[in-house]
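Quick log. Single chain, no ligands specified.
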Amino acid sequence: MLRILVAFWIVVVPISGFGSDPQLLKKESSWNWPDSQRLMQQVQGYLDGKLVGDELQQAKLIASNANSSNGVGLLDILLATTAKGEPAIATLKLLIDAPFTPESNSKIDAQLSSILANGSIPAWLKTDLQLICCRYQVHHELFDEALQRLQPLSQETSSDPATWLFCMAICQHHLMQRGSCLETLDKLLERETELPTRYAITARLMQADIKPLKEDSLDEIARLMNDVERRLALGRTGKTVRDKEQSIVDKLDKMIDKLEQQQQQQQQQQKQQQKNAGNPKGQKAKPGEKPMDDSEIAGTKGPGDVDQKNIGDGNGWGNLPPAQRTEALQNITKDLPSHYREVIEAYFKRLASSQP
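-> predicted structure:
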């Protein structure tokens, strides 16, 4: 009866905090979306002292669109609104929107450094501007530069933590930082259902791609080659590229040595199997004696003696009278050359002398 009552209570009576919201049964995420309304209030407060009239109204109109944004998209709104009130940010926006050239990143980096040194720009805005520049670098495959700038940034203070995690994961994936990449992707996918589709699908693909990666594998070598090719396409020929090229050579040498060792082991096993096939009874060679290969010609020599066989003494070859013995030898050797006669005669003499 007690079990029935407990079961009835679990099914019928909702547990406090869970019955009305099944999503709470899931693992709680370690990060949260920012308060977009609070952020835009900060932006408007910042622009109030910089813009007036129509410009201020336009900026506030753009900021109002953030009310429907859930993290992703806030960066673009933030850049568009603050660029109207700060010339330095406007210049940065122009550089980001311009077509990419080999000099683009250095120009953007210099402009960003000038903004970070500007004491009139608040700290929360500087963090988001750095994240915007990191996103630009990731888009143009400048993964080393993006990762270097992303690491000291605080995800919690960013207006778009999903973009911070996504950019970090892409950099770690391309630079083959397997463990760190998987940790970042796991964290990003804690809110998978709330992410933009492009973020969620790409994160799953990266996760499936880098998870089976093994050190010193052909897959790793191929990725290193692609990374070197990317760096060379960007005009990078410094120490980092040379070190990666040397790493590729070392890993290929290591792989070749391993394959050669495997081939030698296979050859030894095949040779051993052939020897075992030539000695089916498993007989071992005598100490100091090497078994002959099947195709080897024996070079041993001996006196030519063989075990004596009992051929019987019915005709008494050794006891024949001299006349009959001479006649018999002549009959045997009559069709043979003369020098064979002496050999045959010696054989029969030896046979006669061995009779008991």
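Confidence is low (pLDDT under 50) at residues 1-25.
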